[in-house]
Structures are given as structure tokens and as C-alpha cells.
Amino acid sequence: MTHLKMKIFVKSFALAFALAVVQPALAKKEDENYNKALVELSKERYTSTINLLTSYLSTNEQAPLAYYYRSIAELKSGEAAMALGDIDVALQLVRKLPKDSKIKQPELLYQKADCQYVLGQTSEALVSLDEAIALSQNFTQAYVLKAKVMSEKKDFVGADSTFGKALSLDPRNYDALVLYSKNLIDAGKLSDAIEKLNQAVSINKDSKDAYLLRFQANKQLQNYEKAFDDIAFVASNEDDYSPYEKDVKDVAIKCHTYSLPYISSKINANEHSIMWLLVRAAIYKYDGKYLDAIKDYNTLDDKLGEKYAITMNEVADCYMKLGDTEKAQQLYGESMELEETAEASAGLASILKCKGELDKALVYASKAISIDPMNCEYYCTRGQIYELKSMTGDALSDYEVGIQMSNDYSPLYLRRGLLKNSKSDFSKVVKLESSPKPSDNCKPVALAQLGKVKEGRAWVERIIKEYPTSENYYVATCFYACVNDSAKAMNSLEKALEKGYRDFSQIDSDKNLDSLRKSDAFEILCNKWKKASGVTTSFSAQTGNGQPAKPTVVKEVRIVRSGNDYFIPVVCCGVSMSAVIDTSLQVSEMSKTDAEFLSKYGYGRIRNDKFVAKLKISDIEVDGIEFLLVENKDAVLRLNAVAITKFGTCSINRQNSTLKIER
286 with 253: CB under 8 angstroms? Predict the structure, then answer.
């Protein structure tokens, strides 16, 4: 062998030796990546799983299981499209699956169906699942997913049958039990659902899904104690319990005698005490134990280290129910300084209504609605203020809007029924109220209006026995006055006032009490408590400012409706224009450009960023109307409730498209 040949031979041998050493090392490293990926996947570390498998596949492109596992990690990471691409590759390489592999073609098809389901490709998912089931007829999870997909496609009969097949193969399959139960709940088969969920809980005592569904079913069946047990378990075992606070409170109140010992034990043990203090305070408030509720809310503030508007509003409401309207008004005001909430605005509206400051009450009621326009109770509050201002059309409109928001709030039907003398509304109240409540009991008055006196008496006695609150004694007063039992009516009114009832605007204007008004005892009793409460206003007939009504002059102004806006012709500083009636505004509005033009030529004046001007509607002129300036130069003149009521008692007749002003 020549010297050159020898050198070539040595180099070739060295290269072959190097490859023989390095390639196994590289292969070993890639195998390690694959094994590490499976460990990471088991620990739900999906990003690192994807990275390790991507590295492995760079040198092992024909490995179907690597694509399969990467698909699982991608789907868990929210990358469903990439996951579907990987599982398609795995299925193309299905013949290369190791013979000893526990993962077979049906599992690959199941993963493909899962990707398709997440992507909304439900028909394609069903095809993939049918292929998987054809290859493995005992594949329980394939039946479970198929039933789930069928449910989403509204094939409930097929879904129930398929869930049944899954459970026949594996009666302890947790997923099948839970998903089947959801179908049963949706179908109204609540007892059957609870039976399945009991099995699911016995299999997996830690997963919250079964508890939440069983809570839902028991709540619908009014099994409130069992519902409380389930939602309390979930909330107590979650670091973030805030999503469950409302449900916990709702059912805890429904079974307060049962739930209270458990809640108190949690507070004493300092376990999620913030949530449980909120719930216990709500129970105390519901039971009329207002001082206990105030104590819990104050403890809550101490634990939080600062005051919050939400708890301050609750405390204010407690003081209001205790009859301490001054303290309630102070707290609502402080709450508004922290945060302008609908609750505080509605609370202030109610207090100002009681005091006879109806213009201010209307402003705050409208503000509550503007903040939370879907709350039916706020429409009821504003409607009652409109009634006191003799704005019957607006009151009816608010009651009807409130009913559209919630068709099960009985005070709205009662108020509308009293205004329209509607037997159907009274019947609706009777149907809605199946059991007494601490407040908002309308059924006795509705029964009186329907002539069902005996039934009404029984209800009044039951309400007072279960919840002897000031509001319920006032309900009793109304009922007994309606049926001309003056002695019991006066006795009930005295107890209502002793317990803290202070809505003198309601007492003075309530038509249910008309039979008592001729009695000297009624006047003496009311005046006694008005004096003690610092109220001097008579609410029996008002113009909106707490003064007795004077002879009225009626003006009618034509309204033009455009979209949701009502326009009326006005004269502002001698200039004719159109204005929108917007009772949701706290302050009337005007374009800053218009205001600057008018003030430049001596019409009106700008003061503290507001334009103060004379305004004329029909032939009634009022000076000192304030407008908030808005930057939009095309903004129309918008009049709030305060501005409108300065012209007199106003009401909108939507049928005739007129604004009626009584002055």
C-alpha cells in the first residue's frame, strides 16, 4: 500500500470511527429528549413538551408517536390547528407505530376528533370518532366524546343513547357521568342527574365539576341545604373563591338556619373569612338582624384594612331599615365619594323620597338607572317617585320597562296594578310569591285587591310570624286598611314606625291607606313620628318640592320622537331650538360652542364651567337653568329631570306625543 493510499485509509477509518461513536451519542440525546417530553407532558408543562418533541422530530421525522404527543401538548396549549396538523401526520405514519405501543390507531383518531371538536368541526369529529369506534368497539372515551359532540349538535336522544353505551362499558367513567348529568339537567330530569352526580362524586371527590352540576340541580329542586353543601365545598377548596360568592350567598340565605353554623365555624377558623363574613352579614340582613349585619360588615372592613363602597352601601341600607335615615344618608354620601355606584344612588333616591325632596330623589334614581340600566328595582324606585310627582305616565313606563328587565319582581306588578286597577297584575303577584320574605311582600295587598280577604289575612299573619320587620308591619297596615279593619291597621302602623319604618312619602300618598285618613289617630300618630324624625313635609298632594298643591294651569307641548330621543321646542335666551328630554342625566347639557356664542352676545352666562340661562317652554319661562358644557359642537340641548320639573309637574303622554305641564 502506497503512502498516499495509507493516508486515505487512515482518514476514512477515523471518520468511520467518529461516526460510529457520535451517531449513537446523538441518537441517545434525541431519545432523552423524547423521554423528557413524556415526563413534561405528564406534568402538564406543555411548552417544554412541544420544544423537546420538536427537537426529537428534527432527526426522527417518521415517528408517529412523537407527532401524537406533540399534538396533545399543542391542543392543551390552545393551538388546535397545529395539533390537528400533527395528528394528521401521525395518522399518515400509522403503519410505523411500534408493535408494542399502547397507543393504537383508534387513539390517534380520537385525538383527531378532539382537535376537530375544539375547532368547531363537529361533523368531521363525528366521522373520526365513528372510525375509532369501528376499530375498537370498547373504546369508552370515544363514546363519551361522541355523545358530547352530539349534545352540541342538539341530538339529545342520540347523545343520551351514546352516554348509556359509554357507561355500559365503564359504569365508573367520571367524564361520562358528569357530561350525561349535564344533559339530564338541561332536559329537566334533575333527580336522574343528581343520581349520576352522586356516583361521579364517589369516584372523584376532588373534582369540582360534579359538585357544581349537583349544586345547580339541587337549587332548581329547591333542595337548598344540599345545594349549599356543594357550593360551599367548591368555594372552600378554591384559592380564588370570588366566582362562587354570589351563589354561596344566594343559597345560604335560602337555608339560613342550616347554613349559619357552618359559616360561623369557617369565620372562627379564619378560613376564607372575607367571603364568609360577607355571606353571614347578608343572612343577618335578610333576617332583619341589622345590628349584627353592621357588626360583620365593620369586621370585614377591619380585615380588608380600608373601607369599600360595596360594604358601606350595605351598612347604609341596614341603618335605613333601622329607621336611621340620617346615618344612612351620610354613609351613602361617603360611599359616593369612594365610588359612584348604582346602589348608593338608589339608596339616596329612596331616602330623599322619604324626606320629600323629590327633585333630588329623581336625579339619583335616574343616576342609578344610568349606571345599571338592567336592574329592575331601580325602575320601581323611580316609578314611585314619578307617582309622588303625579307623573303617572312616566311611572307606568318605568314599571313596564322594569317588568321587561325581570318578569318575576312582584313589586313592579303591584305598582302597575294599583295604577291601572289591573286584576291580571294582582293575580301575577299572587302567583309569584310562594313564601314570605323579609321585605317586598306584595301578596297580601294583591289578595285584598282581588277580594280574597281570608287568604290575605292568613298571609299577613304568616309574614309577621316569620319576619316581624318594619316593612312587613307596613304591609300588614296596607292590607288591614284595604279591608277596612282600622284597629289592626293602626296597630300595625304603630309597630312599623316603632321598628324604624320612615317612608312618610309612602304613608301620606298610599291609596291603600285612604280608609285611615279621616281618623284623628292616624294624623296624630304620623305627626308624632314625623316630628321625631325631623320631617315637616306633607306628601298627600305635591308639586314636587314638598309644598301643598296650588290650583294648576295645564300646558301641553308637542313632542317629536327620533330614535330613543324625545324632542320638544324651547326658547333658550331668546333663541328658538329643540331640546331632548333625558331624565338619566344628572345635569342638563349644552354644546360649549353654542354657550360661548350666546354668552358673547349677552345671552346667559358661563359660571364654573356651566352655562346659566333663561329657558322657555310654551309660555312658561324659568331663569337659572344650569347646563353642563360638552365639547361636541353638534351636541343638542339636553334637559334633565331637575330642569323639566322647574316648569311644574310634568308627564309624558306617549300615545298623544305630548308633554303635559301642570303649574
Answer: yes
Integer angstrom CA distances of residue 591 from 579, 621, 631, 663: 12, 21, 6, 29
| Cell numbers 334533575: residue | 190
Q: Say if residue 12's pLDDT is above 80.
A: no
Residue 39 grid cell: 415526563
CA distance 660 to 482: 32
Q: Which three cell numbers stand for residue 546?
A: 314638598
Residue spans of alpha helices (H) in 450-579:
453-466, 470-482, 486-498, 504-509, 520-533
Picking from 146, 144, 107, the residue whose alpha carbon sits closest to that of residue 125 is 146
Q: What is the pLDDT of residues 340-381, one digit of tens each?
A: 899 999 999 999 988 888 999 999 999 999 888 889 999 999
Query: CA-to-CA distance for 288 and 464, rounded, in angstroms?
Result: 12
H or E, element range at 617: strand 610-617
Continuous segment of H or E residues that includes residue 580: strand 575-581
Distances in Å between the Cα of 409 and the Cα atoms of 284, 287, 375, 376, 389 are 22, 20, 11, 8, 23
Concatenated DSSP letters of 394-422:
HHHHHHHHHHHH-TT-HHHHHHHHHHHT-
In terms of DSSP bridges, do strands 637-639 and 575-581 run parallel, antiparallel, or are they unpaired? parallel
- Cβ atoms of 543 and 550 within 8 Å: the answer is yes
CA distances to 195, 196, 421 from 180, rounded to whole Å, are: 11, 8, 49
Q: Which of 580, 552, 660, 569 is nearest to 616 (CA)?
A: 569
d(CA 115, CA 121): 9
Q: What angle do CA 408, 378, 364 make, to 5 degrees?
A: 175
Nearest by Cα to 260 from 242, 276, 236, 275: 276
- At residue 43, what is the residue type? K
For the stretch 529-562, pLDDT in tens is 888 877 766 655 343 333 434 445 678 888 887 7
- Is the Cα torsion angle 287, 292, 294, 296 positive or negative in sign? negative
586 alpha carbon, distance to own chain's centre: 25
Q: Which amino acid is at 343?
A: E
